[in-house]
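Re: export button greyed out
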Amino acid sequence: MSKLEVLHFPDPRLRKKAIPIEIIDSNITTIAENMLETMYDEAGIGLAATQVNIQKRIIVIDVSEERDQPRVLINPKIVSSEGIEQMQEGCLSVPGYYDDIERAEKIKYSYLTEEGELIEEDADGLLSVCIQHEIDHLDGKLFIDYLSPLKRQRLLKKIDKQERAQAL
Ligand code: NI
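Workaround output, generated via the alternate export path:
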């Protein structure tokens, strides 16, 4: 297994749209393994392939307290959603920034397992938020896209300052 480099906002590669996976072969399972290693190493609860510069529709998740329930979702889709919930979110691609984001409360979602089995399940709470957040990544979307213009501007200024500080 090998750890992958996580892209950081405002890297334009985070805006690329990932394409559906048609054949689940050893290349895909290796990507999944490396993504899981990267997610655990970075102490994240989810990671989308887009964040490691792979434009394929695959996400990995572990929302368990014990960090021992790795999940790999291939071609994940939101089938239906209901309700509204606000939860504080962060992102490995936007380090050090957290904010409350509104999303659907409950979702029905589908995905393929690494064995190619099509699964449909319900999710709520943290898992629901995490799946919505990661699928957004596959579509080139970041959680900070949901911020108000004022908050967004403040964040951009902060990141700009950090980049200039690093350049010194
Ligand atoms: Ni993220």
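The helical segments are 26-41, 125-138, 149-167. The button fix ships in the next patch.
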